[in-house]
Amino acid sequence: MAPRLRAPSTFAPALLALALLLAACSQAASPSAEPSATSATSAPPSAAPSAAASVETATAYPLTLTDDAGRSVTLEADPERIVSLAPSNTEIVCALGACDQLVGVNDFRDGLPDDVLAELEDVPDVASFTGVDAEAVVAADADLVLAAGNELTSSADIATLTDLGLPVIVLYPESLAEVYADIELIGEAIDAQQDAAELVAGMQDRVVAVEAAVADRPRPRTFYEVGLFEGVIYTAGEDSFLAALITTGGGDPITGDPLSTSIQLEELVAADPELILLGDAAYDPTITPESVAARPGWGEMTAVAEGRVLAMPEDVLITRPGPRIVDGLEALAAAIHPDAFA
Amino acid sequence: MTAVRTDTLADLTDVHAGYSLPSGDERPVLRGISLAMAPGELTALVGPNGSGKTTLLRVLTGALRPWRGAVSFDGRPIDAWRRDALARRVAVLPQHLELPAGFRVAELVEMGRTPHATSLFGSTAEDEAAVTRALADADALELAHRPADELSGGERQRVLVAMALAQEPQLLLLDEPTLHLDLAHQVSLLTAIRRLRARRGLTVLAVLHDLNLAAAFAPRIAVLHEGALAADGDPARVLTPALVERVFGVRVAEAHAADGSRHLALRFPAG
Amino acid sequence: MSAEASRPAVAVRPLAGGASLTRTALVLGGGTALLGSVLVLAVGLGSVGVEPLDTLAILGRRLLGLPLAETWSPVAETIVFDLRLPRVLTAMLVGGGLALSGAVFQALLRNPLADPYIIGTSAGASLGAVVGIVLPLLLPALALGAGTAWLGIGLVQVLAFAGGLGTVLVVYAVARTNGRVPVVTLLLTGYAVSAVLAALVALLMWVSGRALAAIFGWLMGSLANASWPGLGFAMPLLAVSFVLLLVRWRRLNVLLLGDAPAAALGVDVEREKLRLTVLATLATSAAVAISGTIGFVGLVVPHLLRLAFGPDHRLLLPASLVFGASLLALADLGARLAGGLPVGIVTALVGVPFFLYLLRRSRAISPGATAT
User: Fold this and answer.
1) N or C terminus of chain A: which is more exposed, having fewer CB within 10 Å?
2) Same domain, A101 and A199
3) Do C234 and C160 meet the contact criterion of CB atoms below 8 Å apart?
């Protein structure tokens, strides 16, 4: 019969002090632990020199963060086997130099940069647009899963993976600022905060340069065609990320319904775009400025009459919220104001 | 081609007919029927269930092609007749007819004009006159605007008669027209048929199940037994107790009423 | 010929013909007037505002050749004449065609739940359309779309049309036994074939990936793809089938009596059923080809008209045509004002509850229901 332990009254203050100390340390080590929608690191139009460029910060584990879905995620240790369920997350991980830590990716490899594709050659597909193969994720022995929000990764799959004990970080950036925040979040999660800070700083500088180049120029009414299926026209939704990019790039975006992202043809005709950018031309060779001009009712638009209809092969850069989004922004701005970027 | 008697309207010569079962077997119903009807002749057709009465009617309308034998109408083989031409001459009052809901009586009777109808969208004056005549002759004129859904059994029967009459046929085939009718209506319907025959010069063949009624109604009776004609002629001569027992399996006795009319009285088995 | 036709003492008064002919004229006249108003309304309204007088003036000048001074903007003219007018006309042709076919199938099959798609048209057209959407993605080198341009429609529309028509012909052939096509067999065969084709469509959707949005758009039924060339393709097919179906009203009435009584009235029942099936399917397939599978119009409109005016096809057929046209044009107007919804959603949301309400209020008159 073991002697009863004395009541821990003696140890209590010491334990309490230790706990508070640890909490304070972790707070200090993760300044952006709540990176969702309203991030303090939003990039304002006015130039701000890239901060944190020389901060050497190592992530302390265990780490608790809040993802874009408001979920609290705890990482016990530095993840070494990462599964990415969306190409944007894949690109972020690789841009932070952790490509070799990827053990499973989503099967949609279209539009990934060649160097990334090379690194992923031996990495298996663990998900497709129909869902996540949980068994494959487990077989890959993953210790971190990067999912996509807004049901791009279904909440059922997220729940399955969470129930299996895997930390799942859900990302869904809806603005440039949120992209920066997500990069920093991943940077913190995988102990690559320095790389993240540098990456973000570089992106911010380039955005500032674009804004300076297009400032004081007249903004053409710009229509970005995301898709046209059986008569339904898909474009940038009102207040959407794409609309914001067009604005930053120096255009005046014509937007569609915020929920369906569609716009009726007569509304487009009435809005009379001065510039038409064909994002879907990147995937369908039959969509050309000539084919657009031949569409019934489109010939009257200023853009068509003046021949300002451009194919946008860079569409994947413009619509993928990852490290190359600024490449996309630059392509947009060059299309909208070619004389500013000659 | 065998010569056909030209004083007949409808003629069956040694007709064998029946049905094919889903299994592929054949079920013979009529076995060598020869029957001729002259214009204006009134004939009752009787026989036990399954003896082939309805089948015989179907052969007469061309709905069923016989396996052997010849069927002709008005001197021509029935196959040589175009459907609508034949329908302008032969009308059937079927045993069961579902009247589709929502139509008024006059509209249903007008369907009888289909084989005659030439106008694309309206009805010709001749069609309308024929419908009126048919309703009047069937004693159903006052039912003209009633919805068909609201008719009693007797009224329905009169409407069905009107529908057949609207076709303005030469040959009228009636399949058990007295089923479901009470005695008074049975008598009045058959009286009306006799009157119509006189007025319109119709040839009538009526399938009936009541032997006495048949004998009283028609001057000629044809008795079907297992697909063949057991008798064909004047009921008083032909409808003997011996025949009835052989064909129907019941014993009857001949009786004469005070006015001299003859009928058959059922003899119940003792016990 | 009857030997002595008797004349009743009462003068012959029109019983079957006269009264209902006037009623027919009234109903159809009213329906046509409604159609005209709906045309102007639907062309004049939309998500972009156009002055009503401008609308009338544009129509007057472009359609009637009236010499009116151009007081409107070219944008307004493009919207009214190049965008809305073909779309509204398409809605009318499709709505009328679906309602007319629905009425024909309901009588032919003696089934109140019949709609124009019931024996396989929508499943076959859907499969054709989905193949047309997915195939160019899998085999872009074939450039299949270019081959159909001369018809005024795309590959999807051509395959949808062929799929709808072809499927019904196959169903009809399979259901035929001993030279006859019993109604129940036709229904069941159509159901079975539709189920198989629907499974194929689902399979294609599964592998389609990026094309899923396009497939959904087509399946829900939409008039967003309407155009003058598309009308050019569908209108002759629809017009011919309309005329040939309208004149068959008498035979449809008679078919309600049953196959045997109809034959006794001189109708070649099997030939007539085939003719009706082919004509109604031709109309339905042409409609579905240019607008996708819009539901409920073909089922609900004939029923509503039957409840209101009775089952006589002399009136029911042209009324279905005219009121079906107005209904779909109005539904499409609603869809456009609601932000570009697929019109099939509007017809379902509005049409069915209205129909249920009417059904409870009046005694239902369904084809093949009997008075016994």
Assistant:
1) N
2) yes
3) no
**Which residues have a Cβ under 8 Å from the Cβ of C207 and sit 6 or more positions away?**
C134
How far is Cα B88 from Cα B116, in angstroms, rounded to an integer?
A: 7
Which one-letter amino acid corresponds to residue C334?
G
Which of C47, C74, C143 is closest, CB to CB, to A266? C47
Cβ C224–A231 below 8 Å, yes or no? yes
C205: CATH: 1.10.3470.10
Residue C147 Cα, gap to closest chain A Cα (Å): 13
Q: Cα(first)–Cα(last) distance of chain C, in Å?
A: 33
The residue of B111, B157, B160 whose CB has the most chain C CBs within 10 angstroms, and thus the best one to mutate to test that interface, is B111
**Containing structural domain, residue A283:** 216-340
- Order of strands, sheet of A221-225, starting from the edge strand that comes earlier in the sequence: A252-253, A221-225, A275-278, A309-311
| All domains of chain B in start order, with CATH | 1-89+169-192+201-239 (3.40.50.300), 98-168 (no CATH)
On chain B, the residues whose CB falls within 8 A of the CB of C251 are: 114
Range of the domain at C294: 38-361
CB contact under 8 A, C340 and A229: no
CATH number of the domain encompassing residue A230: 3.40.50.1980
DSSP strands (E only) in chain B: 10-20, 26-37, 42-46, 68-73, 76-77, 90-93, 171-175, 203-207, 220-225, 228-233, 251-256, 262-267
ipTM greater than 0.90: no
Domain count, chain C: 1
Q: How far apart are CA B121 and CA C237, in angstroms?
A: 22
Contacts of A326 (CB under 8 A, 6+ apart): A176, A203, A206, A207, A210
Q: Is residue C260 part of a domain?
A: yes
Q: Is C246 exposed, middle or buried (0-12, 13-18, 19+ CB in 10 A)?
A: middle
The answer to whether residue C168 sits within a structural domain is yes
Q: Which H or E element spans position C14?
A: none
Across the interface, whether the CB atoms of C2 and B168 are under 8 A apart is answered yes
Q: Dump pLDDT digits (tens) for C285-314.
A: 999 999 999 989 999 999 889 888 989 999
SS3 state of residue B86: helix
pLDDT tens, residue by residue, A232-273 = 899 999 999 999 999 999 999 999 999 889 999 999 999 999
Average pLDDT estimate for C263-271: 92
Q: Which residues contact C147 (CB under 8 A, 6 or more apart)?
A: C155
Whether C354 and chain A come into contact, CB under 8 Å, resolves to no
Which residues does C360 contact at the CB level (< 8 Å), separation at least 6?
none
Low-confidence ranges of chain A (pLDDT < 50): 1-50, 52
- In this structure, of A65-79, A320-334, B103-117, B251-265, the range with the lowest mean pLDDT score is B251-265
Per-residue CA distances from A62 to A73, A189, B107 (Å): 10, 10, 87
CA A89 vs CA A92, A112, B80: distances in Å: 5, 11, 82
**CB distance C16–B109 less than 8 Å?**
yes
What is the three-class DSSP state of A284? coil
Q: Which of residues A186, A210, A234 is at a domain's end?
A: A210
Do C351 and C300 contact (CB within 8 A), yes or no?
Answer: yes
Would the CB atoms of A270 and C48 count as touching at under 8 Å? yes
Is residue C47 within a helix (H) or strand (E), and if so which, with residue range?
Answer: none
What whole-number distance in Å separates Cα of residue A128 and Cα of residue A73?
24
Structural domains counted in chain A = 2
- Helix C85-108 to helix C18-44 angle (10° resolution) is 150
Q: What is the pLDDT of residues A44-65, one digit of tens each?
A: 444 444 454 555 688 889 999 9
Q: Does A267 touch chain C (CB under 8 A)?
A: yes
Kindly state the average pLDDT of the residues C217-225.
87
Q: CB-based contact (8 Å) between B110 and chain C?
A: yes
